[in-house]
Design the sequence.
């Protein structure tokens, strides 16, 4: 199984993810040329070598009409300005009455992104930057020469950002607008990462807990806590920590990309690493400011399962069967019963339920509700499974029959669906083994 592991000890941003994933390719320069051929209005992507604490990697630079996002320094003093989104609640208000309610929605100066080198006056910043709403962003992405998968993924990621910005402002998504440079920079990062994920095609993506940074960051309209409101909204449910650096380490773009593409968060699982990509941030710290991507093969040892068991000696067979069906209907991986002798030599039944480890409390509660047991035992185990499981329907002289196939560890198994075999046995007046044999011969033709 191809596993992609993202190490986010210094947070995550769009350009860091873009650089880390591009570093996994045979020819990242060809990918950059492909990015620049997409036709994003005024967007230019450049791959720059970068070194942090002696480690070499890639920094992806995105400019829009020759300007980088960090150039939106409306204070003229190098202080941080969040150039991504603002509220435009009334369509007929004067253009300079936005109150500039900027929020953090991309890679800026914060703790590891861009250092502001430009000193623009407030009026200058607004004289040269257009604004776009979510509809305009969707229209741009929809018109790009990319696959349907990339287009769908990019739209979904940007929607996460827009929803988080809307929540932070307390406004509908339609009233959230984005500065042209910030929005197109984010579109380039999001589309680029979506293209790379399609090209790398990992079977599973795991990321470390995300370091957000801590403290406060100065914005155009005041001082906000870290993580910024939009970032905090996106990262709900994602394991996070403050990390070792004061400042903003995770941007909304980085958070949204992780939230969308990552299957699970936790430590790196056992894998044979084949390639490592380093995506570098802009600033320098005592800690290497990079996001690492590991790509390699991982055996098919699946996430751990919990085996729940209880002994029953005072339930009827009908009640035990009902409890078993309830567990299966609730999504148990397997349910079984076995005869046993209990105290006082009473015949009893062992009821077992196998479920995902994190679902153990729910199934234990269901077993307590559906049986007369006073307690449920839990044993957490690892397991090996045939990971590739597919089903296809094939025409036979008995009608359409579903065939199930499983593969893994050099093993391949295939068999017809038992319900279909049973139907054929009844209709053709055959025994089940004879019907199965006949169907299997048909399926091989």
Sequence:
């Amino acid at each position: 199984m191809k596993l992609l592991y993202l190490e986010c000890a210094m947070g995550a941003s769009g350009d860091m993810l873009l650089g880390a994933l591009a570093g996994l390719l045979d020819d990242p320069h060809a990918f950059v040329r492909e990015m620049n051929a997409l036709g994003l209005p005024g967007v230019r992507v450049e791959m720059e070598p970068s070194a942090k604490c002696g480690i070499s990697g890639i920094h992806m630079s995105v400019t829009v009409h020759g300007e980088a996002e960090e150039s939106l320094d409306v204070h003229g003093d190098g202080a941080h300005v969040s150039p991504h989104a603002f509220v435009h609640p009334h369509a007929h208000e004067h253009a300079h009455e936005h109150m500039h309610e900027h929020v953090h929605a991309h890679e800026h100066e914060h703790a590891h992104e861009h250092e502001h080198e430009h000193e623009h006056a407030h009026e200058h910043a607004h004289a040269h930057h257009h604004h776009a709403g979510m509809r305009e962003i969707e229209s741009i992405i929809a018109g790009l020469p990319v696959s349907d998968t990339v287009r769908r993924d990019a739209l979904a990621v940007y929607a996460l950002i827009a929803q988080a910005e809307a929540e932070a402002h307390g406004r509908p998504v339609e009233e959230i607008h984005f500065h042209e440079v910030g929005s197109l920079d984010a579109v380039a990062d999001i589309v680029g990462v979506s293209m790379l994920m399609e090209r790398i095609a990992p079977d599973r993506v795991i990321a470390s807990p995300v370091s957000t940074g801590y403290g406060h960051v100065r914005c155009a309209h005041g001082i906000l806590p870290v993580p910024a409101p939009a970032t905090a909204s996106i990262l709900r449910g994602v394991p996070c920590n403050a990390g070792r650096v004061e400042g903003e380490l995770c941007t909304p773009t980085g958070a949204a990309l992780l939230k969308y593409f990552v299957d699970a968060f936790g430590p790196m699982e056992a894998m044979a690493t084949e390639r490592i990509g380093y995506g570098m941030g802009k600033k320098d710290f005592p800690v290497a400011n990079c996001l690492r991507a590991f790509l390699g093969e991982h055996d098919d040892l699946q996430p751990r399962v919990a085996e729940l068991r209880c002994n029953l000696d005072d339930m009827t067979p009908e009640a035990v069967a009902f409890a078993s069906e309830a567990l299966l209907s609730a999504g148990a991986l397997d349910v079984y019963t076995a005869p046993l002798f209990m105290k006082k030599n009473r015949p009893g039944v062992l009821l077992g339920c196998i479920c995902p480890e994190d679902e153990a409390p729910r199934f234990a509660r269901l077993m307590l509700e559906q049986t007369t047991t006073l307690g449920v035992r839990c044993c957490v185990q690892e397991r090996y499974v045939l990971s590739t499981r597919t089903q296809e329907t094939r025409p036979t002289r008995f009608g359409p029959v579903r065939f199930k196939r499983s593969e893994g560890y050099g093993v391949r198994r295939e068999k017809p669906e038992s319900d279909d075999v049973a139907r054929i046995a009844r209709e053709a007046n055959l025994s089940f083994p004879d019907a199965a044999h006949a169907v299997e011969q048909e399926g091989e033709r």
Notes: The chain has twelve helices and 24 strands. The first helix runs from residue 14 to 22.
